[in-house]
Structure formats: structure tokens, C-alpha cells
Amino acid sequence: PITNPKNDHFYYGQLLEIKREDQSYGFMILTPTGKDTDQLKNCVITYYRTPKDAHQLQGISINHVSLANLKLQDFQTRKLIDIFEVNPA
Questions:
Q1: Number of folded domains in the chain?
Q2: Residue 13's closest CA among 25, 1, 22, 23?
Q3: For 64, which of 21, 57, 81, 88 is 20 to 30 Å away at the CA?
Q4: Prediction pTM value
Q5: Range of the domain at 85
């Protein structure tokens, strides 16, 4: 399970390093939605960081949308559900 150690259910959770075959793809914070502890499938990504010189973003996509093709303006002007074409349950 993922545990939220802070007293804020929206911005804190557990910091995890994303690795595949010993290659680091950065760090993310997974936060339980509305609880202090929950299963991974019930958590949201509230933070993601990768080194600016890393080329890993070229290999990462969410719902067939490549992160390398997105700009800061996309996140400032569009909703995440529109960027990644997802519909929350």
C-alpha cells in the first residue's frame, strides 16, 4: 500500500523512483485519493521529476500520448483529461 505521511490529501504521498532494467526514468510522488493509505491502483501522481538533460521522456507515454511532445503551455491551458484523453471513473 501507498501511505500519505503528511496532513494533506492532495499534494503529498510517497516519493518513488521509476526504474526499468536498472535505468532511472525520474521520480514521482503517488498520493492516495482521500485516504491516508490505499492500494497503488487507487493513487494519483501528484509530482513527477526527471533530469532536464534526460532523454527518457521520449520513451514514456500515457494513453498513447508521448510526454516528450508536450509543452508547459499544454498543462497551463488544457485539462489533463483532455491532454491524455481519459475519462475518470
A1: 2
A2: 1
A3: 21
A4: 0.56
A5: 55-89
